[in-house]
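Practice record 12: protein with manganese (II) ion.
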Amino acid sequence: MARKSTKKTVSDAVSRRVMKSLDGFAIELPSWGFADTGTRFGKFFQDAAASTVDEKFHDAGLVNQLTGACPSVAVHVLWDFSDPTDPASGRALKKIAKANGVRVGSINPNVFQDGAYKLGSFCSPDPKSRKSALDHTLDSIKLGKAVGSKVLTMWLADGTNYPGQDSIYRRKHDLQNALKKIHGAMDKQWGGSTLLIEYKPFEPAFYHTDIADWGMSAAYCRHAGKRAKVLVDTGHHLPGCNIEHIVAFLLDEGMLGGFHFNDKKYADDDLTLGSIDPYAVFRIFDQIAQHEFETGKASKIEYMVDQSHNLKPKLEAMVQTVCEAQKLYAKAQLVDRKALARAQKQGDIVGAEMILRGAFDADVSGLLGDWRRKQGLSVDPLVALRDSGVVQELGKKRAAARKARGEVQSSSYA
Ligand code: PSV
Ligand code: MN
């Protein structure tokens, strides 16, 4: 079987199907992805980085305008709400989102930053810290309702640094109880909402992490209740981990809730999607499309970006990631599922792999260009952004505004 180029082989019917599936492919942007971030060794500031909530939403709105694929923005409760205990601040944020042509998406409580969480949040040995984490999350649920969001995303930094530091059993039970209460509050107050539980193998905890992998996350979801689902942050896996297998397994269990997209060379969420291993991202989308093919129905999956990209210009990094996600998603829709099933049945390993590789290697730029033209967008949003000079303009404006506010954080690089 010769490998064929899509330009010649994609029929009108396939291209219509891919275009239709792109219509339904939305990716949420993280408000924090537009602000300056750093590493524990320091921060490198960018003149054009957003430093206010208005600026974050402005930038998210711009990425949505350029890509046509990002209608919502994930928010971090302590970083984005003027008063996290007051639902009125949620209503104010809703207005800011609307003014920028987007809406508020998933709500991320912050139970990792405060000194009270030094030994953990819901798992802390200190009941006061556990209570403070729960109170904050219950407030976050009220905010979620006030902004009209439907998703609460929980990520905990909880864990220990040394063997013997704490009882893993006690911590597990306290976390189960807290998640049950959170789920109960969502049930009562926030109809139709989903609780996403994220996992991470290490950092900031370096001996054990209370939700270290997808299996633990799924177990906590089951303890919490039906609306709890697993969130897969692509960066949060140890090297060599087969993420698409996890995705397929969770889908089959009805436990996959969503993604935080990014890439990594080692382990964490610092690089832009597909910058290291685009084939791995394609294989994730392939499993999702395969699940749809086998079950005849699409699963509800929240696609979100969560990447630190501390050196790339924020807006460019974000547009790059969204375009990369669309490209790899489109390629996965090209897999000839019936031919793949035949090859699998015959034990034709090479033939089956060629079907996948053929789709991955296919040139979908024409298809994506057609889709974008149909939406009235530029065929290459990244080039459009770079040609517009908007990053430089924002850099000048924001650097001047910071100076006027007396903030000294200019970088020698824009
Ligand atoms: C933690 O590393 C994480 O992936 C969680 O999703 C947080 O909400 C986010 O990053 C904060 O930067
Ligand atoms: Mn994440």
